[in-house]
Amino acid sequence: QVQLVESGGGLVRPGGSLTLSCEASGFLFRQYNMAWYRRIPGQKREWIGDIASSGIPTNFHDSVNGRFMITRDNANNMLYLQMNNLKPEDTAVYYCNARNPQGSFLWTWGRGAQVTVSS
């Protein structure tokens, strides 16, 4: 059974940093491209970035490019999202998932990690 468990969310001030983790199980993690998504209150869930199965390359939505970084640890089935220079508009619930070449997510969503950026 596939499980995706996000953690590391919290409250952070504008300009601050936060790192989210995603623990994946139930599938051959190292064989899949992985992605981070977020759902801003009142909006649909959106893709914000992804990472190839090997760890290179990564791609990002324009709204976070240059501020966010994605890494992965294939030995431990872990995915990470390093978020820097956070803005109030980054406030959202963040999710991880596998992503196929067509851009579709593959697995049932986890609970996500709440990130709140506020002074």
Describe the 3D structure.
The chain is mainly beta and 119 residues long. 0% of the residues lie in helices and 47% in strands. It is built from no helices and ten strands. The chain has strands at residues 3-7, 10-12, 18-25, 34-39, 45-51, 58-60, 68-73, 78-83, 92-98, 113-117. The chain has a six-stranded mixed sheet with strand order 2-10-9-4-5-6, with no helix packed on it. It has a four-stranded antiparallel sheet with strand order 1-3-8-7, with no helix packed on it. A hairpin with a 6-residue loop joins strand 5 (45-51) and strand 6. The model has no long low-confidence stretch (mean pLDDT 96).
Strand order of the largest sheet: 2-10-9-4-5-6
Mean pLDDT: 96
Residue ranges: pLDDT <50 for 5 or more in a row?
A: none
Number of strands: 10
Distance between the termini: 40 Å
The tally of helices reads 0
* H/E topology pattern: EEEEEEEEEE
- Bin the strand percentage: over 45%
- 3D shape: globular
Q: Name the quaternary structure.
A: single chain
The description of the largest β-sheet is: 6 strands, mixed
Percent helix: under 10%
| Protein structure class | mainly beta
Rg calc: 13 Å
